[in-house]
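Recap quiz, item 2
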Amino acid sequence: GENVEQHPSTLSVQEGDSAVIKCTYSDSASNYFPWYKQELGKGPQLIIDIRSNVGEKKDQRIAVTLNKTAKHFSLHITETQPEDSAVYFCASHTGGFKTIFGAGTRLFVKA
Amino acid sequence: DVKVTQSSRYLVKRTGEKVFLECVQDMDHENMFWYRQDPGLGLRLIYFSYDVKMKEKGDIPEGYSVSREKKERFSLILESASTNQTSMYLCATEPGQGTDTQYFGPGTRLTVL
């Protein structure tokens, strides 16, 4: 069945450094790729998304890149801050009702 | 802002009990979802609903049922709770009509003893 692989499972960076989280999807019909951030005690919240007709999207310190040929997409966080510490989920959506989530990456930003 | 509320943040139940988890949204979204979240497994879809009284099985429906009698409310039911259903349960909504972003509630951490 469809799946999304996410790496790494845990990432620790120094404040101010960049963080990169990578995902691979299996369904070539996937056309929407959201990223969610889950802070402690809260539900996941959308932070950025990209559609399959776009290769890159940026929002301040956060960017997402998509390589449809390789079925890879990545989240890039620059100038990390302690408040970026959270669990991040990538996901893929093929239309219809189903979103497939990656297993999550726990990001620690050390002050 | 979209608001998705879940009836309990923490719940402790005994094996064999019937458990109801309630989810309410205030933004008139068409689609609603129940996921369970377990470490290393991400979010796995239990059931979803795209309209009142409509429901569809997700990837792991066994041991669960759902009810959507009103558009704003989606309930998850554990008919006879078991210890392997100890987990974090997340409700989500989606506007529908081609808009795919999901909005999550804060989650219910259920422990079955």
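The radius of gyration of chain A is 13 Å.
Chain A touches chain B through 23 residues (CB under 8 Å).
End of item.
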